[in-house]
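Bumping with the actual sequence this time:
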Amino acid sequence: MVAMNRAARAKLKKEWLQEVLHLSLIARATLKTLLSYCCSFAGVAVCTWLAFSLGFNVASSGFLYLVAVVLTAVYGGVYEATVTSMVSATCLNYFFIPPIWSFHVSDPADWVALGTFELTALVIGRLSHRAQVQAAEAIAAQHNSERLYRTAQRILLLDRSREPGTLITSLIREVFDLSEVVLFDAISASTYVSGISLPEAEERARSAYYLNSDVFDAESNTWFCVLRLGVQSVGGLALCDGMLTPLVATALASLSAIALERARSFEKEYRAEAARQSEQLRTAVLDALAHAFKTPLTIIRTASSGLLAASSLSTKQTELLTLIDEQAQDLNDIASRLLGAAKLDSVDFKPQWEPVLFSSLVNAAIQSLDAQQCRGRCHVHGPAPETPVLADRKLMVTALAQLVDNALKYSVPGSPIDIGIAMGDAEVTVTVRDQGLVIAPADRERIFERFYRAAGTAQLPAGTGLGLSIVKRIVEAHHGRVWAESDVDAGTVFSVALPTAPKRLQ
């Protein structure tokens, strides 16, 4: 309520100031007109005195009066020049056309003089008015260009740590001397106001965006413009109580849209840099932890293996040592994966390329896994003439082994794992299909993120969340693609596609 009363008082004060300014402008214009008429009459009087004192004839006096009419038309206006022409014709008739000291309106020379003076006044006045208008427009355009340049220059120097919308509105209001500037950012759904806060201005700035059209309100002398980036509308702008041309208003809207987009791009850049630094720190920590785990795990496995080799253990002791040995092996695998992830994220990581067949990579991946688990479940099929791909054998075996291992873990026990190889024009694709948990569409991209586990996997075998992220990193290093498809009928399919090797290397 207090804010509304304050806004109402500010509006009344603004209207009062506008009325006072309007009256002062009227008084100034009236005084200027009276002064112009007085100067014109004085000029005619001077011409009459000079011509009469020097004894000019009618022709010379007429030219002298004509000069007075021209000067009045140039520096005064059409109306002042018309009155001056009539007064000059009257003086020429009275003082210089015989019989002097009397009026002879029936003489054709009087009408010729009056017509000449009036025609000169109209033509010169019209040309002078047009030249003055063009000069004023040129000066206004130059002034607006300077202010637009100053605005654009200061926008480039805006403080990036502060809210861009508030800075933009304050800057435009200051440079263009506006009573209020309202900026509506549709992307963030935020409204920024500088100056007298009027609810109707904020509402109409939003309406300009929703209607996607620029509107000028002559009553309030306000522009409501759409913020556009290319052909896309991104917000609205209200420029209140300013002498702005349509071109300037549109230019300010474009500058505001560009400034907001520039601020957003800087913010994205900062976030990307922060994420990159965070990822580097996390990789360094993982690398350090993996190396720190390796030594004690090796000692634990050596000790457990030595105790298991002893023949004097009871059945219970053997079970406990076997459990210790298995869990130490799992921890060792996790540490190895952490080291592999850190290596893949390092700057100097470069695959060792060689032309290889996908079928040999798949067979090597299966052989690297537990033979008991793979026996009878993995079925490989592909074309007889196979095109090689350019790949790092060790890395691709690691990636394919991870996909097959996931299929073994997360599928129905005893169900077949179908591994197929398909040839394409420019790439070779291998698919790993299993019958198991259906992956939700929202999770099919995120499962390749580091440490991410899809919903519904809590009751399934535990994982580190690193395997699929390592697969994606390896495949991307080979300029390939990896993706997942899943439904109840077809099962879950992981696909890896790599470009074929150049013919000169095949």
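The tokens above came from a reply further down the thread. Residues 299 and 328 are 10 Å apart (CA to CA).
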